[in-house]
Amino acid sequence: MLATNFMLAWQFYMQEFTQPHQRLLRWVQGVLLLFIVTLSLSSHSIQEYLQQNLQGLLGADAVISQKQPLSAEQLKEVSLFVDKVAMTQQIQTMLTYQGNWQQAQLKAVDHQYPLQGELVTSTSLQGIGETSLSGPEVGHMWIDARLMASLSLDIGDEISIANKAFTVSRLLQHEPDRLMEGHSVAMRAMINASDMQQLGFSNDLIRYRYLMNANTQQIDELIAWQQENLPAAVLHHKQGKHPLALFWQRTENFMGLASIILFFMAAIAIEQLSQVFMRKEQFFSAVCLSLGASKSTGIQVSIYKWLIGILLLIPIVIVFSTAFHWLIINFLKETFVNLAWQWQLPSMFKPISFVIVVFAIFNAPVWFATYRSSIAQQFRGKQTVISHWLSKLCSILALCIVAFVYSDNGLLTLMMVSAIMLTIALMVVISWGSLTLGESVTQHVSGLFPFALFMMKQRLLSKSTQILGIGLCAFLLLFTLMLLKDLGASMSAYQRQHDGNAFISQASQKQMSFVEDWSEEHNIRIRQVKPYMHAKLIEVNGQSLAEFSDKPSESLATLSKSIRLHWSKTIPTNNRVVEGRWWQEKNTNWQQVSIEQEVMTDLGLQLGDELAFFINNKSYTFEITASHEFKPGAGSITFWVQMPPSALTHIQASQYYMASIELDEAQWSLLAPLWQKFPTLRMVSLKEITQRFDKTLAMITKVISGFSLMIILLAGVVILASINALESKEKKKNSVIMSFGFSRATCLKLNIIEWLVTAFITAIGAILGTYIAGQLIYQSQFSLNYNPNFIWLALTLLMILSLTTALGVWASRSSLKSSIRQLISNT
Amino acid sequence: MSNHIELKGISQSFEINDSKITLFEHLDLSIYQGQSYTITGPSGAGKSSLLMLASGLEQVTSGSSSYIQGSQIGPLSDLRTDSGFIFQQFHLLPELTAINNVALPLKLRGDNQALVKAEAWLNKVGLGHRRDHKPSELSGGEQQRVAIARALVFEPKFIFADEPTGNLDQASANEVANILFDCCLENGAALVLVTHCNELASKAQHTFLLANGQLITKANNTQEVLSC
């Protein structure tokens, strides 16, 4: 019986293969499968690459990293757990050479370095790398090729740091412990540990890293010892996750948001197509029943037919996703050196299975409706109210699964979904309002336009489904394009307007007071100065951070490291309180903090929660009494965690400053002596920001362009699907109109008017939706003040109007081929 | 001279799998406004095709066809604006209520009195009380009555109907047929009706039998009455 039904399903599948509804369904399923499988393959390649290269890249079995050196006693205890220890010290500094300056990561290594793996250097840019058994000798400095080019240095040149001269003796090609330091694009320089002592940098500016050889048992003991004795230190080990892998995981999760949007559009398309599928399947099932077959026959054939469609699609998806995977791996080789493309058939099955399950949920209403309805209902092919709502429920359920699986940033996902819901509500109101108003106003006016409005109003339910589908696609497309455009333009404009053109990310008190005097002396304007101290969150309500929240997010990743803790008497001008109350001046309770709203959402924090911060080797507990968010227009320096200034009398720790200053063209040359005096002053020029920004933007542009292409493709499919769903009704309407003595030209005119009205409503809905999404997401997620460009919006409106109308009229051409003869023969 | 349709020596044929099938040859037919005509005959004789040719929806394979308005002779395509149709399947638009279905052709013509006239026609076909009902809430006979009102509301000079009672029971068929003939007569419109039913055919002023490619004029009220 099963084989017979399968053969029957195959026969029907082949018969329907070229029909529009089947073709459109294949497109929707194909595009989504391709996107998800390619994404999974690329991420799998990266993870595998990292796994394979972990041993050679870690440079140690375990690394303890913190802002202070280990005391002699601690070092002695550590030595009991592990076989061998090497120490490195790292500091962010500004190197200057003949008027050129460049920020770099200066690393000092002891005689035990390298502990594992290869330290590769060369004597010229084109030179072949040689393995060095130890780091630079005293008085020597090894630098990487980018730093060499940036400072126009050559091998043998002398470079000074804080009046101490170093000879640039080798070119640094590879440090075995580099990846354990986390993903960083900073330029590199390496010196001997003895030289570091002579440079006399303040201890709290240096990051100390202890590389250790240890087996699994020793690592376990070390973890326990670190949690007990050095809770604020960061411990990386082979058994834990790779920092770069986590970085990639977050990128992958961000792409997950894109998946949600694509799934949303697929849901719209499949929902529209299901109207056609439901009619056909119900009719077939009714025929089967009338011929004495069981109820399950119709369902079985329907499921087999659906499965055949998916199974035939899989080989095509595998071929295309493999090709795209190859292209992406080549593109990523810039970041992941030596990353190689591999045939990964087994890793394709998980995403394919996942997407098939989601598709099955999308299609469930068709099977459910076929199963539930009676023979009489099936012959009529009328959708019951239950299956109508079931269809919507299934779409929402599938989207929830996708959101749950892929969501990295809870707030962003929530905002995106809220914007979509608001857009739907808006479009329902606009459709109903404009058609009702239009119909009543033009009731006593003659012509085709009032007639078109009348017809649309009468068919409001089916029309509004079409309007919603197209409108949502237009909204998602518009939002993506707007993000692409505004990320570049308004962000850079905003930074230039409020932040000055040089930014100090870390200055000690001494450095800051010097910068203030220096600014006054040279008439340089300081725009903002904000103090902070380093603090590491170790516990939330008595639980460790890892125990409290295990959902990966940007906030969790950042809070796992040391953060900047700011204090302010009043609410900073670029912040607003969204929950709780900011502390009053007379309030004696100093153990309270305000946390940024997005961090609260990401970590699931609530007012009243207790946070324990480790500050300068001491633990302090604070209660969350307020939550704040960024308010644009008063500078971009903002902090995630803020406390009352009264806390300063209880906490003994080094204080630093963030600041932004404005330099004119002639004043740039004044920076070189400033950095010469304070090499550890962390300052970036706008030039640098722009460069970094442009690089990021180029990457985002590529990603978003590819993504927009997917959306455009799916938007086209949604429009075609919505037309396909209404085609038989449209055909009938046109034939009936012609039977009143009207020509095909009249039907075409009516069709154009209907599409113009549809496009107008969708365009208004999409633009309003984009505006809402802009207001919600721009400020909170990108710290941008959303100022929509109305000329751009009007042009976009015109574009959506003409494109939707053109595509709609073009795609409806088959419904215009109707004739009275069809009505006569349609018995 | 009243408006009429003139078909002279018309033939209709088509090709299927390289073989030519001829439905009829050298037929002559004149249809005058204000008169009623029925075409009967066995299935496949070409009744519906003749209806399509007479209404100008299809071109004849050979012969001539014209639409004569007074002294003016024009092609049959001129007939389009003066003709209305009634179908076996009713073909009402399911989203519209009865009154809106009837008002449809008037609204398309920009008639401000569309709803008033539609209501008058609904009353005429005895469905004034069902004005706000959708087609799915009406019986087959009621749907066909709405379709008749819709076809006549814009006062066409010629009405073409293909098996208008084919989907109805005997009682409904009689009721619909009476309304159809009465309304056409009252409106001064010609009625060209294709049917299998001899009883219905007998109601017309002119009855033709199309069989074996020949169109034979039958004398009214003389043929055997069969159940339809």
UniProtKB/TrEMBL annotation, chain A:
Location(s), subcellular: Cell membrane
A Pfam family this chain is assigned to: FtsX
Keyword Cell membrane included in the entry's annotation: yes
Recorded topology in the membrane: Multi-pass membrane protein
GO cellular component: plasma membrane
Keyword tags: Cell membrane, Membrane, Transmembrane, Transmembrane helix
TM stretches of this protein: 254-270, 306-328, 348-368, 389-406, 412-435, 465-484, 703-726, 752-778, 790-811
Superkingdom of origin organism: Bacteria
Domain named ABC3 transporter permease C-terminal: residues: 707-819
Protein name: FtsX-like permease family protein
Organism: Thalassotalea algicola
TrEMBL record, chain B:
Limits of the ABC transporter domain: 5-228
InterPro entries listed in its UniProt record: AAA+_ATPase (IPR003593), ABC_transporter-like_ATP-bd (IPR003439), ABC_transporter-like_CS (IPR017871), ABC_transpr_LolD-like (IPR015854), MacB-like_ATP-bd (IPR017911), P-loop_NTPase (IPR027417)
SMART domains: AAA
The entry's keywords: ATP-binding, Nucleotide-binding, Transport
One GO CC term on file: plasma membrane
GO molecular function list: ATP binding; ATP hydrolysis activity; transmembrane transporter activity
Cross-referenced PROSITE patterns: ABC_TRANSPORTER_1, ABC_TRANSPORTER_2
A Pfam family the protein falls into: ABC_tran
Family: Belongs to the ABC transporter superfamily.
PANTHER family named among the record's database cross-references: IMPORT ATP-BINDING PROTEIN, LIPOPROTEIN-RELEASING SYSTEM ATP-BINDING PROTEIN LOLD
Record's protein name: ABC transporter ATP-binding protein
